[in-house]
Automatic annotation (TrEMBL):
It comes from Kribbella sancticallisti. Residues 32-96 form the Cupin type-2 domain. This is Cupin type-2 domain-containing protein. Pfam families: Cupin_2.
Length: 106
């Protein structure tokens, strides 16, 4: 058992911030922080992702749809699918699960 201290907590590091809290052979977990009014400039990843919104509000845009998101929402984004958070109206913190572990490319 391992407690992931600080996972899902917003960190104000300009312009955006990703901090990895756990890495195993099969998955990795981290926190992605985007400040209110910020720009999400991420590219598609080579891993499946699950996002859990811990704080903030935004819109996620993918080729398959657009959804407003807020605390408690859980999102699945398959590997290689383009996605971006827009209209970030409150500081956004996302707990991110990658499987397989995040490769750092994308």
């Amino acid at each position: 058992m391992q407690k992931l201290a600080g996972a899902g907590v917003f960190e104000r590091v300009a312009p955006n911030h990703f901090a990895e809290q756990l890495r195993t052979e099969s998955l990795s977990v981290g926190t992605y922080s985007i400040p209110a009014g910020g720009i999400d400039d991420q590219a598609p990843h080579h891993e499946d992702e699950i996002y859990v919104v811990t704080t903030g509000r935004a819109t996620i845009v993918t080729p398959t749809g657009t959804e407003q998101v807020g605390p408690g929402d859980v999102l699945f984004v398959p590997a290689e699918e383009a996605h971006r958070f827009t209209d970030i109206t409150e500081d956004l913190a996302l707990l991110v699960f990658f499987a397989p572990p995040y490769s750092g490319r994308g």
